[in-house]
Amino acid sequence: MIEHQILPVLAPAIRKLAARSPQPVRTSLEEIRIRQEQPVQVYTHQGDYFLDPDGQPIRSLNKAYRATGEDVAQTVQLLTRSSLYAWEEELRRGYVTIAGGHRVGLAGKAVLTPLGSVQTLKHISCINIRIAREIQGAADGVKQFLTGMEGKLHNTLIISPPQSGKTTLLRDIARQASDGLLHPGLRGMKVGVVDERSELAGCVNGIPQHSIGARTDVLDACPKAEGMLMMIRSMSPQLLITDEIGREQDRDAILEAVHSGVAVIASAHGLTLSEVRNRPAIRSLFEEKVFSRYIVLSRRNGPLTLEGVYDKDGQCLFKREGRYP
């Protein structure tokens, strides 16, 4: 994956470092962070490291390779195919999605409109390449909790801190629901994916880069709340899937969906069920018992560690041994 999809968008000097890094680092890579005049940093399942001039993972700041302004500029040129203007909408959001569904976050100087909203970015100095990993079967460990005795799908909220696998899990749920693999009594469903950040399906030019099922329709780069309503009106989904809810508009759209007879599976940032329940914007979803399943993930034993499963009343259906968080 890194050789064919990531290396081509890296500046030559950093490409050489990444290509020389040990195979275990490349296969467990989660992020590559490039900051101008700072050490090149990689995040793996085992933790974070800097890369030395030979591409070896180290902890020492003093011995690490430091990205130059040219490294950053060349990487931006490769990411945007030397046309920042053509990518202005992506730059306004602060990220671009490249082949393979990998999301690249960008930071620099924000250029504002007269009304004070972000128009674009310039003087980009920080790049974060997040490696998207498709794991078919990621939902196998939880799908027993997603359906009732007759195969009826539960409205479900997946809760986890960042980089704990919730997007990977949602992606595989979409695939299995779409292809009729979630439950013997549940046929393949029409699935609508609202992918505001282009991570779930990883679309490039509207084409999903991940396997999300034969009956799945994707609305890419669209705000979640508006996108869910658009999907209901135009694509008649049986299941809506979206990532990282948290605003009042998201809450209202989810209520509209479930009251229209559409099942919803979504995710939210948080460590615990109680932490997410107390967020003011979505508290009413808990009070009205919109979700009948809550799945809590962590990174305790690596991404996709299942910590607990709870029903609509907060009753525990599964809990991993040991203290968490």
Task: Give the C-alpha Rg.
Answer: 21 Å
Q: How many domains?
A: 2
Task: Classify the helix fraction into a percent range.
Answer: 25-40%
Class by alpha and beta content: alpha/beta
Q: Estimate the global geometry from the Cα principal axes.
A: globular
- In the CATH scheme, what's the topology name of the largest domain? Rossmann fold
- Beta-strand content bin: 25-35%
Q: What is the CATH C-level name of the largest domain?
A: Alpha Beta
Question: What is the annotated CATH architecture of the largest domain?
Answer: 3-Layer(aba) Sandwich
By DSSP, the count of extended strands is 15
Largest sheet: 8 strands, mixed
Unreliably modeled segments: none
Whole-number mean pLDDT: 93
Number of helices: 11
Strand order of the largest sheet: 10-9-11-12-8-13-14-15
| Assigned CATH superfamily of the largest domain | P-loop containing nucleotide triphosphate hydrolases
Report how far apart the termini are. Answer: 32 Å
The sequence of SSEs as H and E is HHHEEEEHHEEEHEHEEHEHEHHEEE
GO molecular function, one term: ATP binding
Keywords: ATP-binding, Nucleotide-binding
Organism: Effusibacillus lacus
Domain AAA+ ATPase: 152-301
